[in-house]
Amino acid sequence: MLAEVPGLEKRFVYYLEALGYIRPRRVPKRRIARRDYTPEDVARIQALWRYYQRGYSLQAAQELAARPRHYACALLSLAPAGAPGARAAALAEAYGALCALPEVVQAGLLYGGAGIDAVALLEVAEEAEVYEALGRLLARGGAASAPVVLHLARRVRGPRGEEKGAMQAYVLIKLPAKEIEAVLGELQRLPAIAEAAVVYGETDIIARAVVRDQAELDDLVFRQLHAIPTVESTRTFIVVGDLYWRRPDAEP
User: How many CB atoms lie within 10 A of CB 233?
Assistant: First the structure.
């Protein structure tokens, strides 16, 4: 499992063990003892290594890794306008750079989003890290303009899980603040909703839908979401089928 952490050095792992930050189980072997790392060990190592690589001391990295997680959703314009062929290549490169950010746990490239090319879910210890991560993307030319950041106040799972080959979309929902809890509860019961989150900003809820086809998406948006009396408006972004990425160890 440790091979899943890019660039990780063995001596760093052994140092964490010596400090007591991780306690892998020793499995006796004929010549040397093998270490058995739990998924929790791997998650902690990954978090510490990420902060350590960014210049934090190990003590500061440990403190950050132990903090409650913050989540934010970012809507991004990834590549400047240009010739179709050149823009496609620039989009692909920028999308790869977005997925490579260690703070990103989910990302999807979008169809015709009126200036929005991608959506990403970021997991951080401090909200300021969201802007630091996206700033790194901007600095290397991976984003055409400042992203729109929606901080998540609450995140829930819906009844539908991941389906290989399914169509996905992100739906931004606007409604009166006093109705947010009730609508969030209704979204959890809709079969097409995989997850939904209450966010700060002009949008009130962002939901990820997993549907079988365009007809099911149309039914969800126009006949189910807009049938909720308190929903004022929606904005839908369809994910490019094979350009949705989720970190393997991300929280479900």
Answer: 11
3-class SS at 126?
coil
Helices 39-53 and 58-66 cross at an angle (nearest 10°) of: 130
Contact predicate 121/104, CB 8 Å: yes
Output the CA–CA distances (angstroms, integers) from residue 88 to 78, 84, 85, 117, in the order listed.
11, 6, 5, 11
The domain defined by 2-66 folds into Multidrug-efflux Transporter Regulator; Chain: A; Domain 2 (1.10.1660)
Instruction: Give the count of beta carbons closer than 10 Å to the beta carbon of residue 240.
Output: 15
pLDDT, tens digit only, all 252 positions of the chain: 566 677 788 888 888 888 888 888 777 766 666 778 888 888 888 888 888 887 888 888 888 888 888 999 999 998 766 656 677 788 888 999 999 888 999 999 998 667 889 999 999 988 888 999 999 898 888 888 889 999 999 888 887 766 666 899 999 999 999 999 999 999 999 999 999 999 998 899 999 999 999 999 999 999 999 999 999 999 999 999 888 888 766 665
Domain residue limits, the chain: 2-66, 70-246
Domain spanning 70-246 has what CATH number? 3.30.70.920
β-pair partners for 123: 71
